[in-house]
Amino acid sequence: MAVSGDSSAPDRMAAGNRVSGALALHLAAVHPRTATASLGGVTYAILPTASGESALRVTEEFLARIGTRVPVVIGIGRVAARPVDLPRSRNDADRALRVLRGERSRARFARLPDVYVSYLLMDLADRMAAEDELPDGPIVRLRAYDAEHNTPLTETLAAWLATFGDVIAASAAMHVHPNTFRYRLKRLMEVADLDLTDPEARFEAMLQLRLMPPAGQPGTPGS
Predict the structure, then answer these.
(1) Whole-prediction pTM value?
(2) Which residues of the chain have pLDDT under 50?
(3) Contacts of 181 (CB under 8 A, 6+ apart)
(4) Most buried by CB count within 10 Å: which residue of 86, 133, 167, 202?
């Protein structure tokens, strides 16, 4: 497992030391042959168990023991049957830990399969950010139009998608009259050349909204 203190803590080194010490003491009591080590602000632990459920149980017990005094998140790797499998288990834990550190996460621990889709989105966002040319499409056109005309069309689309096309709920979320929202929805489809009756077009729009946050706002790559 990989354990990290809250990266926003005022004294990250002190917080990390507290987490590392508390984890070592806890694991020594429940698994005397456990090995722990700190590296790069993360504490890693190897538990002598053949069961992933056992690792989950130990994690839950540790978090219950420390409470919320020291904010931590824990990524749990797969069971390593042989020493050669340990790097793969650590990689699993590191990837789960990255998702848990993200702004969208509220969980305190996870295995990679629990957060695999979220990790894939982060990885895809990294790849997109590394490309010289970002993809064009409806979202790019909408944002350009909003920037030029000071309109909320992109926000309108996001609200509509988030409410599964429920105009009443989406308009309430944006604090506008449903008729105003309907007008904006019609206008954004014209501006973006976006057919919202097409499920593939809706999926692509949702994905781009998730992977390409507006400039100046936190997004998946930096999570």
Answers:
(1) 0.69
(2) 6-10, 216-223
(3) 156, 159, 160, 167, 170, 171, 174
(4) 202
